[in-house]
Structure formats: C-alpha cells, structure tokens
C-alpha cells in the first residue's frame, strides 16, 4: 500500500482520521490511532479494511497500490469520470 495516498484521499474527502476509521467500521475508541498507523506505514491494513476505506473515500481500491503517481492520478480521474452522475 502507498501510505501517502490514504492520507491524501482522506484529506481530499474532508475527513479526520477518526471519522474515516469510524465510517469504515473501526471502533471509535481506536479509529484515529489505527488510521494514523496506516498513514505513517507503521502498520498495513488488511485488504478488506482498505476496501472499506476506498468505499468511504470514493476511490478505486487499486488507487492505494499503484506505484506510479501519475498513473494513480489518471486512474482516479478515470474512475471519477466513469461514476459521475449523469446530468438530466
């Protein structure tokens, strides 16, 4: 997992570490600490937890694993374009 992407996506979504953790189903008492440890790389979340983060943050799961930053940004733009609501 590319740890800086988790932090970047969380900040872009306007969420605190605790808010992200709780929204992903982590107990409120440990949410901030766990998300912080994932963002710093001290620990790695299991894939299922990362999938929950992706859902909350509205990013594709693969965004957290793509090594090349430009390619990750391209994938994110494609994802958002693909899933943007159709205008009436």
UniProtKB/TrEMBL annotation:
Per the record, the domain of life is Bacteria
Q: Which InterPro entries match?
A: Cro/C1-type_HTH (IPR001387), Lambda_DNA-bd_dom_sf (IPR010982)
Q: Which SUPFAM superfamilies match?
A: lambda repressor-like DNA-binding domains (SSF47413)
Where is each HTH cro/C1-type domain found? Answer: 6-64
Q: Which Gene3D superfamilies match?
A: lambda repressor-like DNA-binding domains
Q: What Pfam families does this protein map onto?
A: HTH_3
Q: What is this protein called?
A: Helix-turn-helix transcriptional regulator
Q: Which organism is it from?
A: Serratia silvae
């Amino acid at each position: 997992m590319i740890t800086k992407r988790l932090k970047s996506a969380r900040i872009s979504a306007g969420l605190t570490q605790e808010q992200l953790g709780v929204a992903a189903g982590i107990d409120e008492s440990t949410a901030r600490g766990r998300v912080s440890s994932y963002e710093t790389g001290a620990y790695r979340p299991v894939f299922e937890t990362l999938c929950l983060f992706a859902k909350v943050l509205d990013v594709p799961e693969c965004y957290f694993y793509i090594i090349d930053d430009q390619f990750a940004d391209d994938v994110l733009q494609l994802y958002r374009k693909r899933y943007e609501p159709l205008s009436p």
